[in-house]
Write a structure and sequence with these properties.
The chain has 45 residues and is mainly α. It contains 2 helices and no strands. The mean pLDDT is 93.
Length: 45
């Protein structure tokens, strides 16, 4: 039962994280705001 739940939850969490990460990356690259360079540097590190 635990393995079945893991096989359901893990891919779901991966898909949600990928979608949110992609949307966040698009927003950061297209928007111009003060401190953008610093924020990008922190995220890359």
């Amino acid at each position: 039962m635990a393995a079945k739940n893991s096989f359901i939850v893990a891919p779901s969490a991966t898909v949600v994280a990928t979608i949110l990460g992609t949307l966040g990356a698009i927003g950061l690259t297209k928007a111009n705001f003060r401190g953008k360079g610093l924020l990008m540097a922190i995220l890359v590190l």
